[in-house]
Amino acid sequence: MTEQMKKAMTERHTVRKFDGTPLSDSEKIILKSRVDELNNKFSLSIALIESEKTPVSLLGKTLMGGTGVYSYFVLAADNREKVDEMLGYAGSDLCLYAQMNGLNTWWMAGTFSRKYVEGFVSGKKIVSIIAVGHGKTQGVPHKSKRMDQVSSYAGEAPEWFKNGVEAALLAPTAINQQAFTITGEGNKVCLTYKSGPMSGIDKGIVKHHFELGAGRENFEWV
Prior knowledge:
By secondary structure, this protein is α/β, with parallel strands linked by helices. Helix content is 39%, strand content 19%.
């Protein structure tokens, strides 16, 4: 599955216009199974929701042009240390898993109706939702920084490190800032992210991408 996830990284692009058709029974089963797996692994409360009312806020409709969103993941958990990062990591996994199964996604951190969505996961911290479904298009690649703008390695960088950074640059981040720095020495890797309201989520997303590209067996986080 790792190779399929790597392929999904290059194929997944943000899609904001969906055709509005419900997920099929088989799609729901596949996605809910993955949600359960991630919830059990990281002690999260992510939910796959299908609602008659769209969660897209007025801002999301007018500024982002979001339409046809009725199926989505609610990234939620008990509030605790580094929970934003864990939910970002799990959300990234869900995006790529959905892409593998012929679906499109849109990260919605500030463009959804929080009050409406909170009713589905009462008492939990919600950091974002991810629209999932059948896009009207497949989206387009985002503008990206260069490897040397976001990373450095002590000495000659091994291939696994380069591959990891390339994968990290494919990660979706808030306003496409790519405000991260990845440094490496030997098999030790450090990931830092510029402080901001979405930095925890973004750090988790970037970490997930780097691990897929580099191969978790090749390095240790510090």
